[in-house]
Design goal:
The protein is mostly helical. It has two domains: 44 residues; 46 residues. Helices cover 83% and strands 0% of the residues. The longest helix is centred in the N-terminal third of the chain and has 40 residues. The relative contact order is 0.07.
Length: 90
């Protein structure tokens, strides 16, 4: 009985890992397409980026991360990475 349950759980975890990998691939494809479209149509960066750069210049990175998270719907890690990218792109 326990082996059946453990086997079932392992199969479910494997299934979920495969699904997540497929979804990540699809998201990367969509991001690439979106990037191409924004370049083709000359759509600029997010309007919030300038405000975030000002916060970074003032040394308020935590506020910048918070603002990015609230505005763009990012997780904490994604918000930090977004702010780091803005800092590098100066």
């Amino acid at each position: 009985m326990e082996y059946t349950l453990i086997s079932f759980l392992l199969v479910m975890v494997l299934f979920l890992v495969i699904k997540v990998n497929k979804l990540e691939g699809r998201v990367k494809g969509i991001q690439y397409t979106l990037k191409q479209l924004t370049e083709q149509f000359g759509i600029g960066e997010n309007p919030i980026d300038e405000e975030l750069r000002e916060l970074i210049k003032e040394g308020k990175e935590v506020k910048a991360v918070k603002k990015a998270r609230e505005t763009l719907g990012l997780s904490l890690i994604e918000g930090k990475e977004y702010i780091d990218q803005l800092k590098e792109a100066k």
